[in-house]
Design brief:
The protein is an alpha/beta fold. 33% of the residues lie in helices and 20% in strands. It is built from 13 helices and 20 strands. The chain binds guanosine-5'-diphosphate.
Length: 427
Amino acid sequence: MPVLAIVGGQWGDEGKGKVVDQLSETADYVVRFSGGDNAGHTVINHLGEFKLHLVPAGIFSSHVVCVIGNGVVINPAVLKSEIEGLNKSGVDTSRLVISNRAHLVMPYHLLQDELEERSRAGKALGTTKRGIGPAFADKTNRLGIRACDLLDKAALGERLAMALENKNTLFTGVYGVAPMSYDQIYTEYCAYADFLAPFIQDTVVLLEHALTNKKRVIMEGAQGALLDPDFGTYPYGTSSSPLTAGGSLGAGIAPNRIDSALGIFKVYCTRVGNGAMPTELMDDIGDTIRDIAHEYGTTTGRPRRIGWFDAVAARYSCFINGLTSVALTRLDVLDTIPALKICTAYELDGARVGYFPASVADLEKCRPIYEELPGWNTPITHVRKFGDLPIEAQRYVRRIEELMGCDVGMACCGPAREQVIQMKQIF
Ligand code: GDP
C-alpha cells in the first residue's frame, strides 16, 4: 500500500504529528498537503519534544524526503525559524522540499487577518491571526505570490507591487490604517528567497518519480474534517480542505493513487476557536480532562474546548474522508474518569437525528443523546497489546469502532512514539 493519507477526523489537534512520526519509519516520502502555520503538531521521540508548524512530521526519520506541498501556504519567516530550530536540535533538514507551487503568507496577510477579526467584533471566527485565511483567499483571487516567485526576484517584485496596491487600498480606505511599505517587504522576502531557494522544487516531478518507483508515501493532513470549508461548521472553520480529497489537490497526488486513508481521532473531542460543538463539557469533567491532557493549542496556547466523543460527527468524518481505518489517541487521558459518555445521536427540534447538520444554527440546537460506559480507573500508558487493556477500555474502543463503522487500526496511550497499541496493519 504505497500511498496513505493521514487526516484529522475531528476539529484538529488529534495527534496526527505523533502518528505520522511513528508511521514515517517505514515511509519514503511524507507530504504535508494543507493549512499553514496556524496548524501545529507536537512530536515527542528519541530526539526530544518538537513543535512543528510547517515542516512535515516525517523529518525525524533520517531516510524520509519531506515535502511541503502546493496546498500549504508558507510564511517564510516561520519556516526559516523552524528549519533553524530543528538544525539547532540536531535534526537534519536537507531532505526537506518545498513545492514551487505553494503560496506564501505575506506581512499584509497578517495585518488583514487581524483587522478582519477585529471588525467581526462579537462574531469573531477565532482565527489564529497568522494570515492563513487571507493568503488562501488571495490564492483563489489570483493575487497570490508563490514559492516559484522567490526564484525570480523580478517576478517577485511585480507580483508584490500588484498585490500590495490592492491591500493598501483596503487598509487605508476601509480600515483607516497606514499603508505597508513595498521596499521593506521586498527586501525582507528577497532575503527569505536566498535562504529557501535550495529547498524549492517542482514536487509534481518529484512525486511522479516516487510513485513510478513504488515509493511509500504518506500524505500528512493538518487540522480536521469538521473545520473543512465545505463540510465543517461553516463559517467557523479553516480555509483549505483537511480531507483526504484535499490531500489529492494539496499534494498533487490523484485520488486513484491513494490506497488508504487513516483518520486520527481523540477518544474525546476538543476544539479551538469558536463555533458549535454539540458535546462540549462546561463542567468539572471538562476541566479535569483539560488539565490531565494539557489541552492548550500548540500554535496559540489557547485552552481547548473539551467534549465527550461525538460518534455522529465521527461517522460523518469517516464517510467524507473515505477512511479505511482509524487511529484513536489519548486513551490514557481517560484513565481516571469514572464514567464515560459517547454521543450516539442528536436531538434536534424534538426529533432524533443521526446526521451532522450543515447549518451552525441547527448544530447549536442539537442536544447530544448519550450512551454511558464504565471507565477503567487504572493506568494504561504501559500497555502495548489490545488484549492487555482493561476490559472497560477494550469495550470503549470497540463501541466507538462500531458506531463509526470503521476499523480501529491503532490506539495510542501516551504521547511518546512507542506508546501505541497496533491493532491492524496500516501502512
Ligand atoms: P496534531 O496537530 O494532530 O498533531 O495534534 P497536536 O500536536 O496539536 O496535539 C496532540 C497532542 O497530543 C500532542 O501534544 C501529542 O504529544 C499528544 N498525544 C498524541 N497521542 C497521545 C496519546 O495517546 N496520549 C497522550 N497523553 N498524548 C498524546
